[in-house]
Amino acid sequence: MRPTFRNVAEMKPGEVGVISGFEDQHIGVKLMEMGCLPGSTIRFNFKAPLGDPVCVSILGYDLSIRLEEAAAISIIS
Questions:
Q1: Strand partners, 75
Q2: 0.85 exceeded by pTM
Q3: Strands, sheet with 16-22, edge to edge from the N-terminal-most edge strand
Q4: Coil vs helix vs strand at 60
């Protein structure tokens, strides 16, 4: 089975992926400061009722990020 490349905004609740990089360097730096490091496992928990923000788990804690930021996180699932 070949790995699938996509972004966190495309994930569904309960899905898990591995961060492979970032689409936007500026947002990527901010996300890395919050612990979203390439090679880390990220789990999509849920979307807010109106779809933005989203909640993900990474490195043992929950993180709420905007949909725009989630779309900038490339993953392998």
A1: 6, 19
A2: yes
A3: 5-7, 73-76, 16-22, 41-47, 54-58, 61-65
A4: coil
CATH number for the region 5-76 comes to 2.30.30.90
Find, among 11, 15, 29, 2, the residue nearest to 71 by Cα: 11
d(CA 36, CA 29): 9
User: Residue 46, SS3?
Assistant: strand
* Tokens (6 digits) for 31: 């996300």
pLDDT given at position 31: 95
Q: How far is 76 from 15, CA to CA, in rounded Å? A: 11
